[in-house]
Amino acid sequence: MKNIAYALMLALGLIGLATPWSTRAGISLPSASGTYRFVLEDELTKQVEFSATWDERGTTTGQLVYTDEARISEQDPEGGGHPDEPTQFSMTADLDSLTIEGNRALIGGVVRDSSHHSYIGRWVQLVVEDNGNGLETADKLTWRVCQPEASGWIPSDAEDPRDEGAYANWWATDFEQSEDRGIPSRNIIPGSRRGCPTFPLSAYRFPIIKGEGQIQISQ
Fold it and tell me: Whole-prediction pTM value?
């Protein structure tokens, strides 16, 4: 009897240890992914594929791949002044930031590889909107590529050695609207930004483009 009771207690103990892991493993983490093909004024097809996910520590990992049928010339990297033969443009970025609000997501990262070397090291920002699987309203996206800013002089008051004006920061909100998320102050210290300037997701506007694809946002 004692052996049976001991075996039963051991089995219950193993189940108890396994339950937290099983429960945690079943929880979906915030993520945004999709594939989108579109055409701009040049009537050439562009495509963006992306996937960004939070891990259990809140760190974002993922990748973005952008390709463009348009052929673009690049200046000779050796400084000879002769542009290279036009080639189709492509770039791959490692994603390191993800913010989700409702059916919108703001994603950022750094270009690690590109058919045009001048783009390597630049920041990329993608804003997407997931409108479900219905055909009434299509999924949307907008994007930008930014040049990292160089470090430099920090503004200060020459007459006040204790001046810390450039380091001050604040959050502007509407006092009469308790649900207002507010807007953060702009960081004016050169070289301190780690990505394209960001704004509240509700402030982004999507261009009217001919495109199709599927975007999925999960919270």
Answer: 0.67
